[in-house]
Write a structure and sequence with these properties.
Elements: H1 8-23, H2 44-52, E1 62-68, H3 78-99, E2 127-133, E3 138-145, E4 152-154, E5 178-179, H4 185-188, E6 194-195, E7 202-207, E8 213-225, E9 228-242, E10 251-256, H5 264-267, H6 269-272, E11 275-279, E12 290-294, E13 304-311, E14 315-317, E15 319-324, E16 327-328, E17 347-349, E18 356-359, H7 360-373, E19 379-380, E20 389-391, E21 405-409, E22 412-416, H8 418-421, E23 422-424, E24 431-434, E25 436-439, E26 444-446, E27 455-459, E28 464-468
Parallel strand pairs: 3-10, 4-9, 17-26, 18-25
Antiparallel strand pairs: 1-2, 1-12, 2-3, 2-8, 4-10, 5-8, 6-7, 7-8, 8-9, 11-12, 11-27, 13-14, 13-28, 14-17, 15-16, 15-21, 19-20, 20-24, 21-22, 23-24, 27-28
């Protein structure tokens, strides 16, 4: 083959052009994380606008405030909230294990009585944010869900909905709504898609354990986050939504953030990159706020990363063990967290599960090691699910002297504080319980209590999960 020679002049010219072109993509830095802290006197819409005022079409980041769903359940005592959290976790575990092909006869060690037919929806847990939908944005609260491949909201006309009619999106009032045809590529790659009746419109249907479901038409729409508009976001317009959802009528839908082609994070990757992170504040500390950031910003050099080891709708990581007080827990082996040849087992990180669920032998070993290390604390009665509890003389968890607990992932050690280990379960008796539980499933789930105070980074370009304790402010 003849070798091509370039003159020095031509090489210099091309180098200059290439250098100039690169410079056109240099972007200015965004504000530090503290700039997204909401003012308690602002509305959700105003807060969303304030967080995005400096953002434009060339931004690398999109920052949103998060609110825990328990803040919407006003008037409930700690005991009532705990009961609701446990029911949500049981329903969500059923949903996750079933979708992962790991459905067994029991998930909790205890005797939690849960009628899933009349349960809360399994995705109605965790944190919600505010988005605007439509040409003239209608702002509504949606849950963020790292285990869902589809973004959807309730829509008019509504055959069955649970939110107030004035909170539901009406696609006929938006000039930017575009339904997909059932032969489109977008529709064909959607799970359980089909034509609606005898039309050519794309229909979506998501079915959850216990008979809960949402279905309707699948289309695209402009979504607004403060002053940032994102066009042509594919989402489900749910005209029929079943399940016992009256506890949270303010929440109109869901923002799907799973590792799938149809998820929201996959749709915006060309604009913000294939990465997002969130910081979940201690839900029992009203002075703190939670946030989610789409884009690579606000990750320090101190962040540690563990690889994603299995690609589906969930985020699978390799958990190798725990240590308590600097001592490895002897009863926990890495093989207890492995995915077998049939795809069973493993560990996922989930935004919607409250308490970390460990496969039964690992849970018992960790619980017993924690009990031994906290033998000087005053024990208190537990529950069938949370069986390790303590009596406090103070008003918060800082009154406890607890050992350091570390989760050992492949290439990443994550240290848990007292707020990640103990949660209040009683308003007046000042009882705190160990925030882990056991499951008879082979799969374990890292819940959001253990993620509090740590920026969790989903770097999908590099196929890894990061943990950064230095930027969660």
């Amino acid at each position: 083959m003849e070798k091509t020679n370039f003159s020095p002049f031509l090489f210099s010219f091309l180098f200059l052009i290439f250098s100039l072109e690169l410079q056109t993509f240099v972007l200015s830095s965004l504000p530090k994380p503290s700039s997204i802290s909401p003012s308690p006197n602002n509305s959700w819409a105003t807060q969303a606008q304030n967080m995005s005022k400096l953002q434009n079409s060339t931004i690398l980041n999109l920052a949103l405030r998060l609110e825990h769903v328990d803040a919407l359940a006003s008037g409930l005592s700690s005991e009532e909230l705990l009961s609701l959290q446990l029911k949500r976790d049981a329903a969500r575990a059923t949903y996750i294990f079933a979708r992962a092909g790991q459905l067994g006869s029991s998930f909790y060690r205890g005797n939690l009585s849960l009628d899933l037919t009349n349960s809360v929806m399994p995705f109605y847990a965790g944190y919600c944010t505010l988005i605007g939908i439509g040409t003239s944005p209608r702002y509504m609260k949606v849950l963020i869900d790292t285990g869902s491949p589809v973004t959807w909201v309730q829509c008019l006309p509504c055959q069955k909905c649970y939110s107030h009619i004035d909170q539901i999106f009406d696609p006929t009032q938006s000039s930017s709504f575009r339904p997909f045809t059932c032969r489109s590529k977008v529709c064909r790659r959607l799970p359980n898609s089909k034509c609606i009746g005898r039309t050519t419109l794309c229909g979506y249907q998501l079915t959850y354990e216990g008979g809960s479901f949402t279905n309707g038409e699948y289309g695209s729409e402009t979504m607004t986050f403060g002053e940032v508009k994102i066009e042509d976001v594919a989402f489900g317009c749910g005209h029929k939504n079943g399940g016992q959802l009256s506890a949270y009528p303010e929440i109109v839908g869901l923002l799907g953030l799973s590792w799938s082609e149809s998820s929201f994070i996959s749709q915006i990757r060309d604009r913000f990159g294939y990465q997002f992170s969130y910081c979940l504040a201690d839900r029992f500390n009203s002075s703190q706020s939670s946030s989610i950031v789409f884009g690579p910003r606000w990750v320090s050099l101190k962040a540690v990363y563990t690889p994603l080891i299995y690609k589906d709708d969930f985020y699978h990581v390799k958990l190798e063990g725990f240590s308590v007080g600097g001592v490895p827990v002897p009863g926990i082996k890495s093989k207890q967290f492995k995915i077998d040849l049939w795809g069973h087992g493993g560990v996922i990180i989930d935004s919607g599960t409250t308490f970390t669920m460990l496969t039964q032998p690992a849970y018992i070993a960790l619980r017993d090691a924690f009990r031994t290390a906290t033998s000087s604390l005053k024990p208190a009665p537990g529950t069938s699910e949370l069986d390790t509890c303590y009596q406090s003389s103070g008003d918060d968890v800082s009154q406890f002297s607890v050992p350091t607990v570390v989760m050992h992932f492949k290439d990443a050690d994550v240290t848990l504080s007292a707020n990640n280990l103990l949660i209040p379960i009683n308003d007046f008796a000042k009882r705190y319980c160990f925030a882990f539980t056991g499951t008879k499933s082979k799969m374990s789930i890292i819940g959001n209590v253990q993620q509090q105070g740590i920026r969790v980074v989903y770097d999908l370009d590099q196929e890894q999960i990061g943990f950064d304790s230095g930027t969660c402010v």
